[in-house]
Amino acid sequence: MKNYDDKMNYDENGLYPDEKPISETHPVASKILSTLVILIFIAGIGCLFFFGNAGNGYAAMYSFFGIFLGIGIIALLSDVIIEERSPQVGIYIALGIGILGIAGTALVQQGSYNTRMTMLKLFFVSITGILAALGLIHSIRNAKYVLRSKDNCTQSVMAECVDRAIVTYTSGGTVKKGGTITKVTFRPTYKFTFEDKEYKVTSGTTTSERDKGMQYEIFVDPENPNVFYDPEAEKKGLFSVILTFILFVGIPVLICAIFIFAFKAAGI
Asked: Mind telling me which residue stretches traverse the membrane in this protein (predicted)?
């Protein structure tokens, strides 16, 4: 259970200050970042159409991938510097697309026909491969918690929440525009010490509030402390593991296979 020695300073939605949207916790920074994102998007799209109509395809490609890179950098700065949390997976995807796209375009521009075709294949395979790899990491973490038997998790320990992913569900629009928060889920990562050895584990999702730096009670298997049970985590079964794997790994792999088949059919 949570240690309730901290001050009860949550708002009417049940959110603590560090759980609120950036628009509420850092209103000025939020407006600046939002403006920069809009400017990057408008500038990128504008350059894309301008260079495209001018017949400069390479400059148009740089503009397109520059949108991903620019927005990814802004999002990374927002997460790391302003919100002081680990970057979200989507940020790495945007940065990866931007960097690979710009680098690939440069190589294609300078290379021969064979180099261009090779880079084209490498680009599509790399993007889908990155998505599949990230999805696999997420699926494994989910499966580790869901599928391991909790029957031997009998030893109570106090674990510190060192990180958490937060997903907020709203109705009626965003919170800033009058929307109401209907559900908040947390996926915490815990750190604890058992028999003089430190462990770090990722739990399943829970609707119970989780704060970084706070202590929570979990139950571990004395024979294998990496196996643990979070009493407040949502109960999920094999179906959720399969569905997660299909969505986050299966679909990117399928898209990659389609690209490879198309390249072969085109003789590339």
From this structure: 32-52, 58-77, 89-108, 120-140, 238-263
Per-residue pLDDT tens over the stretch 130-162: 788 888 887 887 787 788 778 888 999 999 998
Tokens of 33: 């970042």
Q: Is residue 193 within a helix (H) or strand (E), and if so which, with residue range?
A: strand 180-194
DSSP class of residue 218 equals E
- What CA–CA distance (Å, rounded) separates 33 from 26? 10
Average pLDDT over residues 12-38: 62
In the chain, what are the domains?
A: 27-145+243-266 (no CATH), 151-238 (2.40.50)
Distances 11 to 164, 181, 246 between C-alpha atoms, Å? 19, 11, 37
Confidence (pLDDT) at 194 = 92
